[in-house]
Amino acid sequence: MAPENTSKTILIAEDSSVILSLTRKILEQQKYKIVLAKNGGEVIRLLEANPVDGVLMDINIPVKDGMECTREIRKHADSRINQLPIIAITGNANNYTMEQFREAGITEYLPKPLDFDALVRAVRQYVG
């Protein structure tokens, strides 16, 4: 049997194609595999269909926002899914308190404009 690929997979839920392609490029350079969700309606389905090690969650995504998606992930019956580290990305963090993020189940949050060094550090810290 071939040795198991040790690279981790990150689901990115983000509707901005610019941020998506930058984030993807940066994480792929760090040897992460990427699964993309263009809206909140796809997140749970993609998590159920793919072994994922962490989630980058834009708070302002269409269909279901990041807070709603995060709550859904935390309530999921599968512990492989409900225990995932969720790093929120938001351009208007002022709309939420850290308390609200924690309550929803967000592990960590990064403000936009995204500091990509901070992004890589957060992903390494929580996903490995």
UniProtKB/TrEMBL annotation:
4-aspartylphosphate: modified positions: D58
Database matches in SMART domains: REC
Chain ranges of the Response regulatory domain: 9-127
UniProt-listed SUPFAM superfamilies: CheY-like (SSF52172)
Keywords assigned by UniProt, alphabetized: Phosphoprotein, Two-component regulatory system
GO BP of this protein: phosphorelay signal transduction system
Domain of life: Bacteria
PANTHER family, per database record: HYBRID SIGNAL TRANSDUCTION HISTIDINE KINASE J
Protein name in UniProt: Response regulator
